[in-house]
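Hi support team,

I've been running sequence recovery on a batch of backbones for a student project. Most finish fine, but this one hangs at about 90% for roughly twenty minutes before it completes. I'm not sure whether the input is malformed or the queue is just slow. I've pasted the structure tokens below so you can try to reproduce it. Let me know if you need the job ID as well.

Thanks,
M.K.
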């Protein structure tokens, strides 16, 4: 079932280098409505839980360390075809392979520190949004 919602995080590297405003501007200009948003920091335990699906991948430890190294911005976004359109807006995981004009091409430093997260399915968008936000925090 398409929910027209996706979940994103502005990751610690992008927060650290002052890119929150620029990334949110691109998200707004691409037609996404903000349903929920918070500025927060993941503990190592919470980052481990969020990325549990990647537990078997060789970079899991690095990913958990990086995602818990500093504050992030988490948000639920709404738009028709939200999951796929947001993946297009952010570009490929590896910024050297991302299309011109995508958020990762502009703001990401590396495949690990790649500026933003975007859900890869409606199901994961729901799970990830529920990880951060209660019903009362959605508008
Ligand atoms: P995404 O859906 O485009 O975010 O990519 P994946 O689901 O494949 O990976 C999840 C996240 O793990 C990525 O966004 C990166 O932050 C990180 N990641 C992916 N590949 C690598 C890698 O080769 N090394 C490291 N250190 N991190 C990676």
């Amino acid at each position: 079932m398409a929910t027209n919602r996706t979940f994103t995080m502005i990751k610690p590297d992008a927060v650290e280098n002052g890119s929150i405003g620029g990334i949110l501007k691109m998200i707004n200009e691409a037609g996404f409505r903000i349903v929920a948003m918070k500025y927060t920091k993941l503990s190592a335990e919470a980052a481990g839980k969020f990325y549990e699906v990647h537990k078997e991948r060789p970079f899991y430890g690095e990913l958990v360390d990086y995602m818990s190294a500093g504050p992030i911005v988490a948000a639920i976004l709404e738009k028709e075809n939200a999951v796929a359109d947001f993946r297009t807006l952010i570009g490929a995981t590896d910024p050297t392979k991302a299309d011109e004009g995508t958020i990762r091409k502009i703001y990401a430093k590396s495949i690990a520190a790649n500026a933003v997260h975007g859900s890869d399915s409606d199901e994961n968008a729901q799970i990830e949004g529920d990880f951060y936000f209660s019903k009362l925090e959605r508008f």
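--
Follow-up from support: It reproduced on our side and the slowdown came from queue contention, not your input. The mean pLDDT is 97. No action needed from you.
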